[in-house]
Write a structure and sequence with these properties.
By secondary structure, the chain is α+β, with helices and mostly antiparallel strands. The chain is 19% helix and 33% strand. The strands form 2 sheets. A 4-stranded antiparallel β-sheet has the order 1-6-3-2, with helices on one face.
Length: 160
């Protein structure tokens, strides 16, 4: 038995691991700025709003419902807008399959919540279906009085 396995066995026998597991154990505090959740994503919205792609910060259910329905064909999920906002990331029309849009990271600065948006596109030599797509994502982010500043980067996805 390795020394590490022996230490774990001793701690488990004493109930320390069970106590740590019950209280969440030690670990880094969660960064509220990193709190984001994908609510929906796709590349073929059934009834997209007109335009060539938009990034919207949605702060109430009345604004979320029609956009979510138009882009996903489904009813919007419940969102506690006292605690969260929703980003609509709409990449606009794209000439082939293989595109996607997502949140790469969130970072709080003194004046804003900076959201890094990643637009993934197929690599230069990739074979992609010749079909019009419109990648989108709805992402839940923390609410707050800081404005949202969006930064976009493009990432080429290598062929598989």
């Amino acid at each position: 038995m390795t020394p590490w396995a022996r230490a774990v066995r001793v701690l488990a026998g004493g109930g320390l691991l069970a106590a740590l597991a019950a209280c969440g154990g030690p670990g880094p505090a969660a960064d509220p700025a990193a709190d984001h959740e994908l609510l929906a994503a796709g590349d073929q919205p059934p009834d997209p709003p007109p335009g060539d792609g938009r990034r919207r910060v949605i702060t109430d259910a009345a604004a979320l419902r029609p956009l979510f329905l138009a882009m996903t064909g489904r009813a919007a999920p419940e969102v506690d807008f006292a605690r969260h906002r929703v980003l609509l990331l709409d990449a606009g029309p794209r000439p082939t399959a293989g595109y996607a849009i997502a949140v790469g990271s969130l970072r709080r600065t003194s004046g804003a919540l900076v959201v890094e948006i990643v637009l993934r596109r197929p690599g230069a030599d990739c074979m992609s279906a010749a079909v019009m797509t419109r990648p989108y994502a709805f992402v839940r982010i923390p609410a707050g009085d800081r404005p949202v500043r969006l930064r976009e980067r493009v990432e080429r996805v290598p062929c598989e």
